[in-house]
């Protein structure tokens, strides 16, 4: 046998169940920052798998918890500035994104944290994905994977400002 002969490889698409398991495992290992949007006095950074199912602020007991990236320091600054009431239009818009994220956590709990931990999925996309998840099967994870693919394919065309 020639050692340089081409090797035939059959590529078999993994089943949706297998894909769903891989996506779930990857998302559970993602690290997120959780911030109470009600009192603004509590934040923590942890892996999704360690987020409790009944997520609430240990300071005030509210379930209005925003999900963001671990290195996002902007949210705490915005929440402090919000107390003075002197926010710019851009800052108000940023707070609305965090509020939308917190609203999803309020409605869907840990499942929202998991979806928001996915790459390139913000509150609007997460809202669409979670709203479609009425069936309760593995389609949630496939929808997350498809949204991540769309983000990777289109991110170069987005306005970075």
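^ structure tokens above, recovered residues below v
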């Amino acid at each position: 046998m020639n050692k340089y002969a081409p090797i035939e490889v059959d590529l078999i698409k993994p089943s949706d169940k297998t894909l769903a398991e891989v996506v779930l495992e990857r998302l559970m290992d993602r690290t997120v920052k959780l911030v109470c949007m009600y009192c603004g006095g509590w934040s923590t950074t942890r892996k999704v798998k360690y987020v409790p199912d009944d997520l609430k602020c240990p300071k005030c007991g509210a379930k209005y918890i925003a999900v963001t990236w671990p290195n996002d320091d902007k949210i705490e600054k915005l929440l402090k500035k919000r107390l003075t009431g002197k926010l710019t239009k851009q800052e108000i818009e940023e707070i609305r994104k965090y509020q939308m994220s917190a609203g999803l956590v309020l409605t869907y709990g840990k499942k929202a944290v998991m979806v928001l931990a996915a790459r390139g999925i913000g509150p609007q996309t997460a809202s669409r994905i979670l709203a479609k998840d009425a069936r309760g099967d593995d389609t949630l994870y496939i929808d997350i994977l498809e949204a991540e693919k769309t983000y990777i394919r289109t991110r170069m065309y987005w306005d970075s400002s």
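DSSP finds six helices and three strands in the chain.
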